[in-house]
């Protein structure tokens, strides 16, 4: 009896396997055919693409804008790519993007290149917000301010400062030993690039042996659990568990509190504006998108993603 | 019941066709694994290959200078990363091997009935915890504990990562180690007990030597698991390029470097290609470990 019972079971199994296989292939071909036969039927026409390439610092922000804008204007799809400000500039010069994201201004050579390729046009600049980095320490750390020079000696390869006592800090509650734990970011992040450029300098290397976290929020989390640590992250990522330091350009000069106001009046040294560039006057759809970004809805997203919005007009 | 053999000889044509079909299907399933492994290796190597001609192998393997995004002179030395991977793996094994094999001996020899079943289920449950959850535990729970228990300046370090890796590789060691012990014939046990050996003597003098190949295979598979692990070590080892001086220094592993950096490199750049070469290096390391595990297992079968 057992054999009689098992045989049909095997057939059943084989049949279902075959049926599933057939179904899968059938579905596959059906899916492939759908987009071709009825393109964009739901939206009632082809989606208008806006190509948006450039700065890695701005890539998260640009994606957040693009996502939110797809709700506002379903007929337009903004396609965001990172790669760095340089790539954005190159793409704009080559005409392969509508908007270039740049966490710096166009250099003179780049403007000349652009004019050679596009006679009679200028790269048109739109300021869309600010990027400001705070230097964080544990909330129990008595240190209140730090200079750019000191930060350079901490973070530069072969820099001179490696102990808290060398910064004049003694007895951090809960700290073990005198070692400064340097918290940094993975070496591709826009934040890392900006910090390296402004603190360590283009010609110097970062110190090896920093603890490299994989996100702005992770940096703050780690510092909040590590009394020996110092690190940098976007100003918007501050929490109750960490303390931001006032930063001065040189030791002895007045240290400036990081805030929206000090970013806007340019007194805070680790902040920079973020730009979007178009080739000459933007097309109507692109203009509409840029106006939305500079407007209230777009600037709210700037604040939500941890950057500094433009001053309210 | 007499009709049974008659029925089996006289097959309907559909039965014959389906038989062949299923055979082919199973054959494809078997070979697909080989095809996948080789094509993955091929594609990883292909992405990294253009850089091979410019790569100085000595500098790549032994230099500790990892400046892939330098604006003056990018340097691709993975020495510190290799040391990081090996040191965290070795420390993990120092912790995991006594626990894993001890648990295997306990489950197989000293435990019976309900307790045995429960233990096996719980240990297998340990293997079901996703590695990102382990990493999260390391980052949030273990880090302050490590700082305060050992009075070290940073809690995410080699020790933290090694504990997590140990916990992740113990389940593999236990289940394979237990199988190896089970494979030792009962006559060995009976003979030892008949000679008046205590349980400890039985384990130490008879079972461990008899099952040593299987236990070695268990350990090597655990090593493979530890070397290949990414998410947990990315979050819990501190991700810091340096040669560790103590077990409480943060380190960075090869896997974590790929995971952290590949997402934001531009495709085809030197950095991108070097990351794929790191992939090839890792592939080679795990291949060697797994191959030796296989050879050892084969050794047992022959016996």
Any guess at the CATH architecture of the largest domain in chain A? 3-Layer(aba) Sandwich
From the alpha carbons, calculate the radius of gyration of chain B and give it in angstroms.
24 Å
* Helical content band of chain B: over 70%
CATH topology type of chain B: MetI-like fold
State the CATH superfamily name of the largest domain in chain A. Answer: Periplasmic binding protein-like II
CATH class of chain B: Mainly Alpha
Number of strands of chain B: 2
SSE run of chain B = HHHEEHHHHHHHHHH
CATH topology of the largest domain in chain A: D-Maltodextrin-Binding Protein, domain 2
Largest sheet of chain A: 9 strands, mixed
> How many helical elements of chain A?
10
Textual characterization of the structure:
The complex is a heterodimer of chains A (about 325) and B (about 300). With about 325 residues, chain A is an alpha/beta fold. Chain A contains 10 helices and 11 strands. Chain A has helices at about 1-35, 60-70, 85-95, 110-115, 150-155, 190-200, 215-225, 260-265, 285-295, 295-305; strands spanning about 50-55, 75-80, 100, 125-140, 145, 180-185, 210-215, 230-235, 240-245, 245-250, 270-280. The longest helix of chain A has about 35 residues, at about 1-35. Chain B has a single domain, classed as Orthogonal Bundle (MetI-like fold). Chain B is built from 13 helices and 2 strands. Chain B has helices at about 5-10, 15-50, 55-60, 80-110, 115-125, 130-150, 160-180, 185-195, 200-210, 210-230, 230-235, 255-260, 270-300, and strands at about 65, 75. In chain B, a hairpin with a 7-residue loop joins strand 1 (about 65) and strand 2 (about 75). In chain B, helix 4 crosses helix 7, helix 5 (about 115-125) packs across helix 7 (about 160-180) and helix 12 runs antiparallel to helix 13 (about 270-300). The chains are: A alpha/beta (about 325), B mainly alpha (about 300). The interface of A and B includes residues 11, 14 and 221 of A.
């Amino acid at each position: 009896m057992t054999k009689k019972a098992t045989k049909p079971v095997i057939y059943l199994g084989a049949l279902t396997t075959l049926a599933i296989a057939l179904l899968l292939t059938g579905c596959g071909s059906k899916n492939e055919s759908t987009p071709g036969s009825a393109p964009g039927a739901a939206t009632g026409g082809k989606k208008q693409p806006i190509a948006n390439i450039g700065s890695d610092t701005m890539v998260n922000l640009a994606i957040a804008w693009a996502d939110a804008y797809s709700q506002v204007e379903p007929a337009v799809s903004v396609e965001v790519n990172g790669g760095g400000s340089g790539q954005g500039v190159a793409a704009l010069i080559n005409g392969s993007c509508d908007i270039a994201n740049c966490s710096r201004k166009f250099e003179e050579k780049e403007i000349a290149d652009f004019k050679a390729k596009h006679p009679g046009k200028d790269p048109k600049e739109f300021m869309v917000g600010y990027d400001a980095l705070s230097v964080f320490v544990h909330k129990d750390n008595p240190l209140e301010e730090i200079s750019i020079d000191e930060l350079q000696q901490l973070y530069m390869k072969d820099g001179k400062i490696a102990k808290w006592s060398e910064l004049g800090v003694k007895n951090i509650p809960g700290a073990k030993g005198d070692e400064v734990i340097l918290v940094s970011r993975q070496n591709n992040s826009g934040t890392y690039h900006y910090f390296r450029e402004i603190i360590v300098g283009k010609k110097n290397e970062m110190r090896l042996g920093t603890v490299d976290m994989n996100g702005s929020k992770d940096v703050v989390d780690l510092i909040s659990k590590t009394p020996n640590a110092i690190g940098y992250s976007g100003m918007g990522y501050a929490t109750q568990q960490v303390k931001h330091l006032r930063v001065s350009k040189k030791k002895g000069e007045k240290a400036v509190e990081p805030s929206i106001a000090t970013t806007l009046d340019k007194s805070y040294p680790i902040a920079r504006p973020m730009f979007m560039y178009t080739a000459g006057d933007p097309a109507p759809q692109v203009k509409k998108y840029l106006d939305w970004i500079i407007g209230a809805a777009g600037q709210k997203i700037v604040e939500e993603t941890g950057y500094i919005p433009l001053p309210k007009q | 019941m007499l009709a049974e053999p008659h029925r089996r000889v006289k097959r309907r044509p559909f039965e014959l066709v389906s038989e062949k079909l299923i055979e082919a299907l199973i054959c494809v399933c078997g070979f697909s694994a080989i095809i996948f492994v080789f094509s993955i290796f091929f594609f990883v190597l292909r992405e990294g290959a253009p850089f091979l001609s410019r790569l100085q192998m000595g500098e790549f393997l032994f230099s500790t200078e990892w400046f892939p995004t330098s604006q003056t002179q990018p340097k691709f030395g993975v020495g510190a990363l290799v040391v990081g991977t090996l040191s965290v793996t070795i420390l993990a094994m120092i912790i995991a091997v006594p626990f894993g094999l001890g648990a295997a001996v306990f489950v197989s020899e000293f435990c019976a009935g309900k307790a045995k079943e429960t233990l096996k289920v719980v240990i297998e449950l340990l293997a079901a915890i996703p590695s990102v959850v382990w990493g999260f535990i390391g980052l949030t729970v273990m880090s302050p504990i490590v700082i305060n228990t050992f009075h070290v300046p940073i809690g995410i370090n080699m020790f933290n990562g090694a504990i997590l890796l140990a916990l992740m590789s113990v389940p593999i060691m236990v289940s394979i180690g237990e199988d190896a012990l089970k494979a030792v014939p009962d006559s060995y046990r009976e003979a030892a007990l008949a000679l008046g050996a205590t349980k400890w003597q039985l384990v130490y003098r008879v079972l461990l030597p008899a099952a040593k190949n299987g236990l070695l295979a268990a350990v090597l598979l655990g090593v493979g698991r530890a070397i290949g692990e990414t998410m947990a070590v990315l979050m819990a080892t501190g991700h810091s390029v340096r040669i560790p001086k103590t077990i409480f220094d943060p380190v960075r592993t090869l896997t974590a470097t790929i995971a952290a950096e590949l997402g934001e490199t531009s495709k085809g750049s030197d950095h991108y290609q070097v990351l794929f070469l790191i992939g090839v290096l890792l592939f080679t390391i795990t291949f060697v470990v797994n191959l030796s595990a296989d050879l050892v297992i084969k050794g047992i079968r022959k016996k």
